[in-house]
Amino acid sequence: MAYKLNDKSYYNNRELSWLRFNYRVLAEAGDTRNPLLERLKYIAITSSNLDEFFMVRVAGLKDQVKMNYAEPDTKTGMTPEEQLHGIGELNRENCRIQYDMYHELMNELEKLNVFLLRPHQLHQSLQDKLEKLFDEEILPSLTPLGIDAYRPFPKLMNKKINIFVDLSNELGKQTAIVQLPTVIKRFYELSHEGKTYFVLAEDIIEEYVYKLFNGYKIDRTFPFRITRNADLTIHEEGAADLLIEIERFLKERTKGAAVRLEIDRSRDITINGSFLEEQLSLHHEDVYRFDGPLDLTFLFELTDKLKHRFPKLLFKPFFPQQPKFLGNRNVYEAALKEDIFFHHPYESFQPIVEFIQQAAKDKNVLAIKQTLYRVSSDSPIIESLKLAAENGKQVTVLVELKARFDEENNVHWAKELEDAGCHVIYGMNYLKTHSKITLVVKKVDKKIVKFVHLGTGNYNDSTAKTYTDMGIITTDPRIGDDAVNFFNYLSGYSLKPEYKELHVAPFEIRDMFAERIDLEIESHKKYGNGYIFAKMNSLTDKRIIDKLLQASQEGIKVDLIIRGICGMKPGIEGVSDNIRVISVVGRFLEHSRIYYFYHNGDKKMFLSSADMMTRNMIKRVEILFPINDPRIVEELIEVNELFLKDNVKARMQMPDGTYEYVKNDLPPLSVQEELMKRAIKNGEQKKTELLHEHSNILERIKSRFRKQDV
């Protein structure tokens, strides 16, 4: 049949779709079902997300405009300039809502006797304390930067808050800038008569800034903040040592061109920042003026300060449970019998940590090979890898130095691992290695067994508590052989292997998706029961989008759980009316990638580190792995169905690209809440089984002693 494709009205622009996702995060701040301090965190998350969006995505578009690159995007046909205009319109509305929510939630805090005030609003005794604090702690670290013919406009740091100062004396008017030093706190806490007051550092500096300019009158001050281009090129070709090149790149990043100027105009609504705009070579649409403090990520620290005082204003504590498929067994003993499935953060990440820890100490383990993309700042996995090398094991670690905004951290870990005797690989030329795989080669009963962990998320014990991810540990010989070939391919010189079970990007994963969709179409033509389910962070690849549109037009039901960017519009009659797109934004960050093809009951289930994004499938080394154990397949199908039943946190994309909360007649169900309940119930059952087992052992011991007495 002739498919309906390539009409720009069928697609969403990537950047605008991302902004709609960030709005869904922001909407959680307005959801009164969430506790107050958690709502404040969502405002902070929105700000943090937006910083990275401007440093990378907006910066890239601005570079294209500067180079007169007017090529339209492949789906909506928008040029870089049109995209920037669309971003400006949508983001200004999002920011307006964000600051309205911020003021509303700060008013709620005031009902709890917690106030964010400016110095002049405080009781006189507190003002005196604050002035002393300024004189002793803040003033010595400040450097006023005058701007005139002899002192040019300074190179201000990325994302740091500055105070713009207009001043004058009998000789005329002058301009200066005071940057908030990184050594001072963002806010200071004071108490008086049972009330808690927080005062922002920029407000304190503005109040007493006259002390920096003796002999001048302060005419006007206002805080501002610059966001710079952080999407600079890493020169891999010809780099003698990528480690050194990355360190050079990190220094260059701080000097990137300005892409956004933010101004706090809450003291003076007439401020327009035209002088700054000119000095930074920005356009009017690059300037954002807010009636409130800049960089709302300070709310992370603020809520952290308040959490012990108001524990009921946080989500009810949840502790990850023992994995259902592992139970109380040792991970190595269990994996010899069957595949083990893990679902974080509902189930603990600790068995994965112990998988490496035990391998480091086990005299029967010959080698450990692992890929690392992002790890925690005090990673127990890193410590275990170092210990393994010190214990004489062959340890190979691929540390991806190009993991954006984790480069510095990864350089640090790469050096530590090398010093400990590990063989460290820095990644591959022009590709990011985003795969999540560990291979442990162990001698069991005089035979070599390959234990393989594959996952959808990073080996990060910290984010494993807040990101939803999945993984398996298997001793399947075919997957073990693939793992050996995968690591040999990364560390040496060889052609890309022919894998038996794994699908490895670049290219192979996208080809496999296209092939699977085609097979589902053929199966549907025969049996009329075609079904595709996919869960991912983002969908942007046009080839795959068009394949899904073809499947819809053939009558196949397609369910997509997409947290963030979605490049297609579902529900368009005759085009995508068999496609449903749902986004779940809740307590945990949805991060797992699940791909399922019904194929007339021959259920094909896959997990992956990759989204259906062009960059994942073409510019990265990713792994997609099959789930061959029928028990795990059924477990995943059950989880998938829960996502489709969510009518609390799930939002459905409408044919115009906007999102609305899912509404149905089913009892209220949040997939994340339900999975937490199930994990707790399973954990309690496992504890009961363990206690029963211990009781039986104790009874047998007592019985033996009684027989001996007789």
UniProtKB/TrEMBL annotation:
<dbReference type="InterPro" id="IPR024953">
    <property type="entry name" value="PP_kinase_middle"/>
</dbReference>
<dbReference type="Pfam" id="PF13090">
    <property type="entry name" value="PP_kinase_C"/>
</dbReference>
<dbReference type="GO" id="GO:0005524">
    <property type="term" value="F:ATP binding"/>
</dbReference>
<feature type="binding site">
    <location>
        <position position="563"/>
    </location>
    <ligand>
        <name>ATP</name>
    </ligand>
</feature>
<feature type="binding site">
    <location>
        <position position="374"/>
    </location>
    <ligand>
        <name>Mg(2+)</name>
    </ligand>
</feature>
<feature type="binding site">
    <location>
        <position position="404"/>
    </location>
    <ligand>
        <name>Mg(2+)</name>
    </ligand>
</feature>
<dbReference type="Pfam" id="PF02503">
    <property type="entry name" value="PP_kinase"/>
</dbReference>
<feature type="active site" description="Phosphohistidine intermediate">
    <location>
        <position position="434"/>
    </location>
</feature>
<dbReference type="InterPro" id="IPR041108">
    <property type="entry name" value="PP_kinase_C_1"/>
</dbReference>
<dbReference type="GO" id="GO:0009358">
    <property type="term" value="C:polyphosphate kinase complex"/>
</dbReference>
<dbReference type="InterPro" id="IPR036830">
    <property type="entry name" value="PP_kinase_middle_dom_sf"/>
</dbReference>
<keyword id="KW-0808">Transferase</keyword>
<dbReference type="Pfam" id="PF13089">
    <property type="entry name" value="PP_kinase_N"/>
</dbReference>
<dbReference type="InterPro" id="IPR003414">
    <property type="entry name" value="PP_kinase"/>
</dbReference>
<keyword id="KW-0067">ATP-binding</keyword>
<feature type="binding site">
    <location>
        <position position="591"/>
    </location>
    <ligand>
        <name>ATP</name>
    </ligand>
</feature>
<feature type="domain" description="Polyphosphate kinase C-terminal">
    <location>
        <begin position="331"/>
        <end position="494"/>
    </location>
</feature>
<dbReference type="InterPro" id="IPR025200">
    <property type="entry name" value="PPK_C_dom2"/>
</dbReference>
<feature type="domain" description="Polyphosphate kinase N-terminal">
    <location>
        <begin position="11"/>
        <end position="116"/>
    </location>
</feature>
<dbReference type="Pfam" id="PF17941">
    <property type="entry name" value="PP_kinase_C_1"/>
</dbReference>
<feature type="binding site">
    <location>
        <position position="49"/>
    </location>
    <ligand>
        <name>ATP</name>
    </ligand>
</feature>
<keyword id="KW-0418">Kinase</keyword>
<dbReference type="GO" id="GO:0008976">
    <property type="term" value="F:polyphosphate kinase activity"/>
</dbReference>
<feature type="domain" description="Polyphosphate kinase C-terminal">
    <location>
        <begin position="502"/>
        <end position="665"/>
    </location>
</feature>
<feature type="binding site">
    <location>
        <position position="467"/>
    </location>
    <ligand>
        <name>ATP</name>
    </ligand>
</feature>
<dbReference type="InterPro" id="IPR025198">
    <property type="entry name" value="PPK_N_dom"/>
</dbReference>
<comment type="similarity">
    <text>Belongs to the polyphosphate kinase 1 (PPK1) family.</text>
</comment>
<comment type="function">
    <text>Catalyzes the reversible transfer of the terminal phosphate of ATP to form a long-chain polyphosphate (polyP).</text>
</comment>
<dbReference type="GO" id="GO:0006799">
    <property type="term" value="P:polyphosphate biosynthetic process"/>
</dbReference>
<keyword id="KW-0597">Phosphoprotein</keyword>
<protein>
    <recommendedName>
        <fullName>Polyphosphate kinase</fullName>
        <ecNumber>2.7.4.1</ecNumber>
    </recommendedName>
</protein>
<dbReference type="GO" id="GO:0046872">
    <property type="term" value="F:metal ion binding"/>
</dbReference>
<keyword id="KW-0460">Magnesium</keyword>
<dbReference type="InterPro" id="IPR036832">
    <property type="entry name" value="PPK_N_dom_sf"/>
</dbReference>
<keyword id="KW-0479">Metal-binding</keyword>
<keyword id="KW-0547">Nucleotide-binding</keyword>
<feature type="domain" description="Polyphosphate kinase middle">
    <location>
        <begin position="127"/>
        <end position="302"/>
    </location>
</feature>
